[in-house]
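#struct-help
A.M.: can someone run this one for me? Single chain, 98 residues.
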Amino acid sequence: MPISDADLFHPSTWKKHFSLIPVVTICGGACVMATCYVGYMLMYKHDISLRPSRWKEDAPYKYVEPDQVVRLKGYNKEISYDPEIVALRKEIGSYKAK
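D.P.: on it. Structure tokens below:
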């Protein structure tokens, strides 16, 4: 007698094959965490876009400031930036060829 899909989620099946509970729990948890991380990256990362055609004129990473943290976890030590170098990078980045 073949097992139907509805029988797989019945409590008697889990009592009979109790060793599958940790496997299913760990795999399900990993899938949920991976989905949450992809959602986090789509919402908060500046270099990921759902509209790549927009990058030709207006790349999203241009709006990240030098001292803005865009990682999941920031650095512990303070990073100091030379204002002349930051201004030079902005000037070079805003240059458009004719």
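A.M.: thanks! The mean pLDDT is 78.
D.P.: also worth noting: The chain has two domains: 1-44, 51-98.
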